[in-house]
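Q: Could you fold this chain for me?
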Amino acid sequence: MTEVLYIIALSLGSILAIFILTKLMGYRQMSQMSMFDYIIGITIGSIAAEMATSLESSFIQPLTAMIVYAFASVILSWLASKSIKARRMIDGAPLVLLNNGELYRDNLKKAKLNVTEFLEQCRVNGYFDVSRLETAILEGNGKISFLPKAQDRPLTPSDMQLEPQQDYMVANVILDGRVMWDNLKHTGKDEKWLKHQINAQGAKSMEEVLLATCDISNQVTVYLKNSRSPERDVLM
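A: Sure. Below is the predicted structure, expressed as structure tokens.
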């Protein structure tokens, strides 16, 4: 029983350590990871798992190793922000895979991609005909960016000489039945106004609202908690 409690304590400690170190390394670890970020993330996770089950040895050693890896990531990130050469070495340089109707075999080899895998990535991104692509670039984070040819790209308002009104972010004024007071204050409205808005859309109280948003024109959109799930046949 003592060993079980010890493992629970170590597991919670490793989770806390990973949380703090991830905050230290920044949100980059969760979004646009380079190859080095990926390796660092896996290594820290493996060390944390070892730390959680280290019954015979001290947890200080794996914790120290985790901190060293985290600081190495921070230092390399700082170097990448200061030097373009270091950035290319750490994050990798983009590779042009396709341009102006020409597919670059050597760059595909450097990217460890064969033609079949490249075509698969094209289809995943909605391009079933490669001839409709002008350029394809492999980014440093392993994702491929596609530039369609001018005649095949989506129509934009500027193509039609239109000037649509700019959209802005909406404010979440209610989340899970709770009023987000700072967001509501930012809209310049009060609780009485918000209650009137949700009542007009079928909610008797704040607790019945799963999500309520307010846009720049003070238009409130309400999503109720008791909304029915779609029929299964619709998804078949």
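A (continued): The beta strands are 95-99, 102-103, 133-138, 144-148, 171-175, 178-179, 209-214, 220-224.
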